[in-house]
Write a structure and sequence with these properties.
Blueprint: H1 2-29, H2 33-36, H3 40-44, E1 47-51, E2 54-63, H4 69-103, H5 110-129, E3 133-139, E4 146-153, H6 154-163, H7 169-197, H8 202-208
Antiparallel strand pairs: 1-2, 2-4, 3-4
Helix pairs in contact: 4-5, 4-7, 5-6, 6-7
Length: 209
């Protein structure tokens, strides 16, 4: 009996030791993005930005814990595309609202006009979103989390708007003249939110100086 008791205690002690090691291993795996030099787009996240080729909408998606690598990448890609859709949906809503406010102030037909413009811009938006591209990937070496960057070109949206037979010339001209302005305003608003969320630290203060 004593022998069995000793064996049992040894097994229990071994299991506890393994659990402790696993916990330590998990704890050691956590490393902040700043320390492992994650790409800038991972740190910034989704939103309206300007790159070398012009104004764009970026969507950042991620996935982890999926052992099948193609499925891991596909999941991250899909989430990145969905993020672009969210940003672009907010942008087109702002575009519609701004157009209505500038053209139908005090007009009793505002509701009908708004519904028409909204419906058409949604159609153009759906066509535009089909052109979303996955342009970059990155995997966190510490945790295995896989990131995807999706991109949508503002110029592509403007081109589709101009070619749309459903939109009248007033709307086309408005989009042409205001698409970039609204894109920039959205980007500035998002930048403010990111700055507000950014934790204050001596390091951040030094960088800002």
């Amino acid at each position: 009996m004593k022998r069995y008791a000793l064996v049992f205690m040894a097994l229990v002690f071994g299991a506890i030791s393994l659990a402790g090691c696993a916990g330590k291993e998990k704890e050691a795996k956590f490393v902040p993005f700043q320390d492992i030099k994650a790409p800038e787009w991972v740190k910034k996240g989704s939103g309206a930005f300007e790159d070398k080729k012009g104004d764009v909408f970026y969507g950042v998606g991620s996935a982890q814990g999926i052992k099948n690598f193609p499925l891991l990448r596909l999941t991250a890609d899909d989430r990145a595309r969905n993020e672009v859709a969210k940003v672009f949906e907010f942008y087109t809503a702002s575009l519609t609202k701004d157009y209505i406010a500038s053209t139908t102030v005090g007009d009793m037909k505002v509701t009908a006009e708004e519904q028409h413009v909204e419906a058409v811009i949604k159609t153009v938006t759906a066509t535009t979103l089909s052109g979303v591209e996955i342009v970059e990937h990155w995997q966190n070496p510490a945790t295995g989390e896989f990131f995807s960057l999706a991109k949508l070109d503002l110029k592509a949206f403007e081109d589709l708007t101009r070619k749309s037979g459903e939109l009248n010339e007033n709307v086309k001209n408005y989009v042409r003249d205001n698409a970039k302005r609204l894109h920039d305003e959205l980007g500035q608003e998002e930048e403010k939110k990111r700055a507000e969320k950014k934790p204050e630290s001596p390091e951040n203060g030094e960088q800002e100086k």
